Amino acid sequence: MSAQPRTARGTRTRAKLLEAAETVFASVGYHEASIVKITEGAAVGLGTFYLYFDGKQAIFDEVVEDLNRRVRHAMTDAARSATNRIEAERAGFRAFFRFTAEHPALYRIIRQAEFVSPGALRLHYTRIVDGYIAGLKAAQLNGEVRDMDPTVAAWALMGIGELIGMRWVLWDEEGTEPVPGARPDVPEDVFEEMMQFIERALAPGATPHAPTPAGSIPPQEGKAP
User: Fold this and answer.
1) CA dist., res. 127 & res. 68, Å (int)
2) 95, 150 Cβ separation under 8 angstroms
3) Residue 214: pLDDT above 90?
4) How far apart are CA 197 and CA 157, in angstroms?
5) For 37-102, what is the HEC assignment?
6) How confident is the model at residue 184 (pLDDT cuts 50, 70, 90)?
7) From CA 78, how far away is CA 61, in angstroms rounded?
8) Residue 1 pLDDT more than 60?
9) Topology at the third CATH level for domain 56-202
10) Residue 194 and residue 87: Cα distance in Å, rounded?
11) Within 13 Å and on the Cβ side, how many CA atoms surround 90?
């Protein structure tokens, strides 16, 4: 549980604690993190911490929520001026990768949440997906994307962004995590290859191949079915 500040000074202090907690959790991990390390990083007293947070779990959950809010805002704001769904996808993915490059703690903390706070992890992903589903449904009504299950498509698209970002933003060329700090953006050729894949998958004229019925033999080339 966390408490909202009542003054501008309190708002700044709480923000400093969240910023320090993000750094500590990302650098040493949840289990090695301590409230003392967080308050030292924020340059506030230990007693001040408990004015806003009940304990380490409470501030961890708030850090996850804060990162989620910021990345969703970055993606939504970037896609706001798009005139169609494909443009919105392109702008949203660019914003996501840029945010990840500037805040590599996003990946590290979300991965920790899988074990530390599964509820916070689920909330992080479902909040992103819910907005995605709404956008895809609207695009379907406008004829901008093909007929599909928007829930499945939303999770698939989010998975693409998650793993592309992990490989080309978070990891170095040897496939291991680099030193902490801002990272380079996704290379342009990688971004364009990803977008071509997404555009083909969402194109209004694209129709999925019908599965071959069990036990049947597909017609051979050059022969009538």
Assistant:
1) 8
2) no
3) no
4) 10
5) HHHHHHCCCHHHHHHHECCHHHHHHHHHHHHHHHHHHHHHHHHCCCCCHHHHHHHHHHHHHHHHHH
6) confident
7) 26
8) no
9) Tetracycline Repressor; domain 2 (1.10.357)
10) 14
11) 13
Q: Report residue 10 CA to chain centroid gap.
A: 29
User: Residue 223: its pLDDT value, please?
Assistant: 47
**DSSP secondary structure code for residue 209 in this structure:** P
Q: Which 3 state secondary structure label does DSSP give 2?
A: strand
| Structure-token pair, residue 155 | 């999770």
With beta carbons less than 8 A apart as the criterion, state whether 79 and 88 touch: yes
Domain boundaries along the sequence of the chain: 56-202
Report residue 144 as tokens: 């901008």
Distance CA 190, CA 173 (A): 14
User: Is 219 a residue whose pLDDT tops 80?
Assistant: no
Which pLDDT belongs to residue 206?
55
The structure tokens 């708002």 sit at 11
Residue 178 dihedral angles phi and psi, to the nearest 5°: -80, 180
Asked if 35 and 70 count as a contact pair (C-beta separation under 8 A), the reply is no
Q: What are phi and psi of 2, to 5 degrees?
A: -130, 155
Helix (H, G, I), strand (E, B) or coil at 10: helix
pLDDT confidence tier of residue 172, bands split at 50, 70 and 90 = low
191, containing H or E segment:
helix 188-202
